[in-house]
UniProtKB/TrEMBL annotation:
It holds the Pfam family Acyl-CoA_dh_1. Its cofactor is FAD. Residues 297-431 form the Acyl-CoA dehydrogenase/oxidase C-terminal domain. The lineage of its organism: Eukaryota, Metazoa, Ecdysozoa, Nematoda, Chromadorea. The keyword rRNA-binding does not apply. The keyword Protein biosynthesis does not apply. Residues 102-187 form the Acyl-CoA dehydrogenase/oxidase N-terminal domain. SUPFAM superfamilies: Acyl-CoA dehydrogenase C-terminal domain-like, Acyl-CoA dehydrogenase NM domain-like. InterPro entries: Acyl-CoA_Oxase/DH_mid-dom_sf, AcylCo_DH-like_C, AcylCo_DH/oxidase_C, AcylCoA_DH/ox_N, AcylCoA_DH/ox_N_sf, AcylCoA_DH/oxidase_NM_dom_sf. Keywords: FAD, Flavoprotein. Belongs to the acyl-CoA dehydrogenase family. This is Uncharacterized protein. GO terms for molecular function: acyl-CoA dehydrogenase activity; flavin adenine dinucleotide binding.
Amino acid sequence: MFHVQRIVRASAGRRLTARGTASNAEAEKQNVSPVQRLHVSDALIKELPIERQSLTRGLAMDKFEKDFFIYPEHQDADDLRNIEGFVKVLRDSLQQSVDSGEIEKSGTLSEVVKLALDRNAIVSTLVPSAFQGLGFTNKDKIRVFEELSIDFSISSMMQATNSAVSLLIHFGSSEQKEKYLPRIVDGRCRPGFAYIEQGSQAPFAEIYGSGQQLLLEGKFKAVNPQSANLMFVFALKRDPVDNKPKLSCFLIDRNELDDGSKWDGKRDGTLGLKAFEYGDLSIRCSISDDALLGEEGRGRDVANELVASGRMPFAAAVSGFAKRLVDDLSTLCNQTPSTATENTVLASSSSVQRLLTHLSTKVYALEAVTYYLGGIIDENMPILVDIESALMHRLARETLKECVSAIVELSGSKGIEIGPRYEKWIRDISTLLAMNSEGNVTEEVAMSTLSSWAVTNYSHAKSSIQRFFKMASHEKQLANPKLKHFIAEHAHPSLQDAAQELEFTMSRVHAILDKLIAERGKNLEADYASMENLVRVLQNNLIMVAVISRATRSYSIGLRNSDLEIFFATQLCTRLSRSSWFELDALSNHFNLLKLNPSLLSAGRAVLEMGGYKIENPFERNW
């Protein structure tokens, strides 16, 4: 029998020194290594070069840090064996206990599933060892969530718990951590939180009164509105000085409410994720200063971290599900007779092969990025990962959409009879996409990159002659970028072309940002189409770095099917580099024939103003 206790990490000596993480002094006191926040703002360290602090920001400024091209891994072989043993036991346990049909029918997890999760100490893996948890690293938690995606209701429930733990670690006082984290481990505390999208103006609760006599009241959407006994609530309180409402986060302990308090939770019906509890919570209770999470008036920071902390578990769950889907579809295609060609199976169809090419390479990219990001957070590197986690979230959503497309395409036009599990998966994915919406990720990533670029590279206005020669330089850099970092020296020889394409894209992005900021400045904030173009290129860069470094490591140590990884990486980088070139071409607009980006939104705007599709029939006559 595999012992869960063997997984406890000896990683207390690892330190992340970037601002926005827990302080080292506090970490030493609590005997727990600092945990990286996934959403920070203005946290760059001036003393360090930008390329050593943020991968994406560095690439956008055409700066290269070779350490980012070393794919992270377990430094201790025992750690790797331990997590592999843990995951194997968990996988076997879930396969024996999880009946998705029964979960769908009952709308809740069965006692057998709950027992399996408890015996495998899943919640403990999310909590630091200083608070009676197992203190799993990010790499290890990714593997756990890949297995939990055997049913998205299970992974979504654990994702919510992980977010609650993250908020307590980053914003909770010492008393709040010591009180609630051990209770989460042993099951006495069941967390829930007000549902909020990053950047949204969702309905918030309100705080009335002053001093010690405070009343919190409100109705809002929440996760676990009925079953939770610890709720993270966002509430507005008017500042006594300027009378402006300020958002703060409060911990409401249901077990400590008095008789006059109100806690009325109502669960909503959803298209999928039938065992995941989501609905309305109407609450009214007295609170004290001890209930405040973090600083007063900093509720937006807590809300942003709440959203960001769910991105890695979400991406890991999507990666695990998508890999199983590829296996399932491959088996079906190899066993199902083709309706187009006699005595053949679907697997021989070129269209099926093309579809699975797109799906499998997308899954490979997501898996590479997720483990890459989790690994570099675990390393002793002073890094910011706010942009990278947002890009990973976009990629995970794209992968889910690709999964739905593959299911529909193969089960429909290719003659595979759709089974109940496919129908459930489509509904679960639809609900999962709604619950993990993109929000304002595009604006967040674009503006963070642009502001960092401007702070680092901005120069004051130049003369018209200087601008003319600068424009000519931009055109030359776009059309014929030069190699200066020689990234290919850090990759496998077979990936030379892929590494060079990445370097060319870095050079072009830097030139485009220089031109955009010089010509348009703050007006870029209102140009969503340009921001979308830029974010697509930044996402492509992140994928290329992850797959190049992953494939290089795999081939260098002789992993099974490493030659296929080289092929995957080459194909991905070729396709992504061409995509980036198209996006940058649209951004540069150097042909001056068409102002492309402003026109991209005009059709949608016109449809909204007219209230739908109001184009006349093509055979209509103007009598």
